[in-house]
Fold each of these.
Amino acid sequence: LQLHHSGHYHCRGQVSTAVPPWRESELVTVTVHRVSVSGVSLWAQPPGGQVALGDRLVLSCAVATGTGPLSFTWHRGGSEAPLGTGPHLELQHVGDNDSGHYHCRVSNGDSVAESVPLNVTVL
């Protein structure tokens, strides 16, 4: 189901022995709601968020429940400025300034949920 499927529905059928032969049911109202986003989790490659200076780090975000469309933003520390969007954040050549606590935030337009922060350590 999608949000645009909300509306009023009825069925119509033919009863061959009736006059008139067509009959309609009562109207039924269907309202489609979004499911709130919850269970946001985050993991890293390499595992544990420990990465060697100059190597690549990939952070991935997943949602246990929630209907979309979903939007993802990535944050480090207490910063509200997003580092990226989408379910993955890739840092090609990590530097010392990339260490810190990262989390992803997911929204479906009606609700927002965040992952537990992951501490990334550049070795």
Note: Residues 1-32 form one domain.
Amino acid sequence: LYPNFLFLFVSISLMMSCSGSLKLEIHTDDKTPGKWSVPLGDDVFRRFLSGGGGSEKAVFGEGSLFSPFLFGKYFDPSDAFPLWEFEAEVLLASLRSLGGQCRVDWSQTDLAYVLKFDIPVVGKNNVQVYVDVNGKVMEISGQWNNNKKAAANGDWRSGRWWEHGYVRRLELPCDADAKNSEAFLSNNDDYSFLEIRIPKINSKNKF
């Protein structure tokens, strides 16, 4: 779907940060240019979730970064969303009022854009982050179910991807320094916690 994009592929490395989190190593690679080419519709998603079990609800349920209803109304998570154009306090107000239902937060400082969220530990759960350098789009995805048949072309992200994994695609702000992004992963029994920091271009000149 995006054959001319150059991606930064972020995979889990074994380097430990000072806080005990795993620092994610950045690579340049994209072997699946046709990924997310199958859109997820509202009716399809509702049928899928109603027939699913605890794993599906944990990954796509209310308050998850990967829920199509995270922003109040249905939004296909494979479509890029301009996250930092909205304040988390406003967009997630209804979820936060329920208490304990929100597992995502984002913010910005003079130096960087920050995204923090929980990922349910289910199935394979190999989280990956891509940044499209030209189009300024970030993709956060992972495969949580490897028990079903892969897509016809052999890659789960090019078919009915929601049956195998999850994704959230985000538009990056125009001053985001995608090449120098960093991500850190912490693990516990039920959830993994991922923090992504995207520096602002020429942020050093702001002081």
Note: Confidence is low (pLDDT under 50) at residues 1-18.
Amino acid sequence: MGYDIERFVGYVNEGLLCSICRDVLEDPLQAPCEHAFCTACIHGWLVHHSNCPEDRQMIDVSLLRPLYRYMKNDLNRLQLHCKNREYGCEMVCSLESIDRHERECEYSQIPCSNAGESGCLAARRLSGICKSFFPCLRDLTRRNKLFRSEMICRVEEAKHEMESRLDSQRRHMVQKESVLQNEIEELKSQMSRMMSDVRSLMAAERQHRQELEQAELEKREL
């Protein structure tokens, strides 16, 4: 199954939805017909079928491939809420970083390590204090992990943004280089035509000079 589309912030492109479960792609694979699926969804489908659920073209597990890189990048950039949002987590992270955050999320529902609080869940301890008002070491540790997870998330997002800008600048420079190369080729072509014209003028001048010399000789003979 994919990621619940209701967790995502903003518009999600139709091409990033699983053709079977209709949620956002999770661990995606792509068929030769370019329809994309969650790995679990398409493997489950192919147990009982031998065609694409979208256009009914014949497919086999061996023909499935990872998403195109540009689609994978678009998928990783999607922003979504933590799965523990209902328990109080307000973190919004890129899909690329969400698994790391959720593994360390302070609001995950786990038993408190304080032996005296058998029914206490660490996710409910925002103050670092259990129901008995004694410090919960595990809860404090998880809060520290959450802070580290958020920092990693932000660093990765900043890194991705910088890489995107560098790619844009690189494309711009390649385009400028192409334009300059075309201008150089045009100048070379113009110079070649000019040299050809100069050679033609020099040949015409020599011919004219020879005609004058011949006329001078004939004049002397007369």
Note: The radius of gyration is 36 Å.
Amino acid sequence: PDYVPRPPNPFICFRQDWLRRLERGEIAYSGPRDQRTMSFRISHDWREMPEQEKGKFRREALQRKKAHAAKYPGYKFAPRQKE
């Protein structure tokens, strides 16, 4: 492939889970649905989450990183230069 996405970190795993739970109605959120406002709320929830609960997302990120390594052996992050 021409572009290989980076494997997600624990916060990204949490963010994806948070948005899925919001769609299912498991999270009470009545604020604006723009990216900036929601990112602020999600990052706040992450910072307030106990370390023990963050472990779930750290384990998920590690699993996804291993799967990424198996799918893209030899992958090395190399940011693209802006033109």
Note: The helical segments are 10-23, 35-48, 51-71.
